[in-house]
Design goal:
By secondary structure, the chain is of the alpha/beta class. Helix content is 29%, strand content 21%. It is built from 6 helices and 7 strands, in the order αβαβαββαβααββ. A 7-stranded mixed beta sheet has the order 3-2-1-4-5-7-6, with helices on both faces. A hairpin with a 6-residue loop joins β6 and β7. It is globular, with a radius of gyration of 15 Å. The protein starts with 15 loop residues before the first helix and ends in an 11-residue tail after the last strand.
Length: 181
């Protein structure tokens, strides 16, 4: 895939080049947790060009309507399951349904990100991915979102130098190739 499809995401799209670099190194489907202006359009294009399955879960109905315009044979948009009280319940996702090539963790509410990261730590229960790309891991969100206790448990880790930081973790693949991105 060529770099010319990447939209200029500014500080909001700093994760794109790392996400797409990870996706290009794998052969499995891609899981997008939380749709976004930049990630959804880039992953939709990637899925079409590479004939790769991408599944996007999004909890906000108005946002689902926007990104559904990007759907095609290889790119699916699904609503996040809701709790009994109508809140997004990321615990209900079947993370283990696929051996994911790359997973983008960028959903709302932020507490759902912890659920998703934890699901990929415990591979004995089935959830597996080559790379987990976590957006917004700079110092203030890390201390506010409590990512660190989970992220440090992965065997491989790489943190981007960007102001709006992205962290890539894996229990299977070395992430240091991203340093040249």
């Amino acid at each position: 895939m060529s770099d010319n499809i990447l939209p200029d995401g500014g500080e909001w799209g700093t994760h794109l080049k790392y996400l797409l670099a990870c996706a290009a190194r794998t052969s499995g489907p891609i899981l997008e947790l939380g749709g976004g202006v930049h990630s959804s359009s880039a992953l939709s294009r990637f899925a079409r060009e590479q004939c790769r399955k991408v599944v996007c879960y999004e909890p906000v109905p108005s946002w689902i309507q926007k990104i559904r315009k990007l759907e095609h044979e290889h790119y699916q948009v699904k609503p996040c399951p809701l709790s009994y009280h109508g809140y997004p319940d990321w615990n209900q996702l079947r993370y283990e349904a696929e051996q994911w090539g790359a997973v983008l963790v960028d959903q709302t509410p932020v507490s759902g990100r912890l659920v998703s990261i934890a699901a990929f730590l415990d591979e004995q229960h089935g959830a597996q991915a080559d790379f987990i790309v976590v957006h917004d891991t700079e110092i203030i969100p890390v201390t506010r979102y409590y990512y660190e206790p989970l992220l440090r448990q992965f065997q491989h880790r790489w943190d981007s130098p960007d102001t709006t930081r992205t962290t890539v973790v894996s229990n299977h693949e070395d992430c240091r190739f991203l340093a040249g991105s």
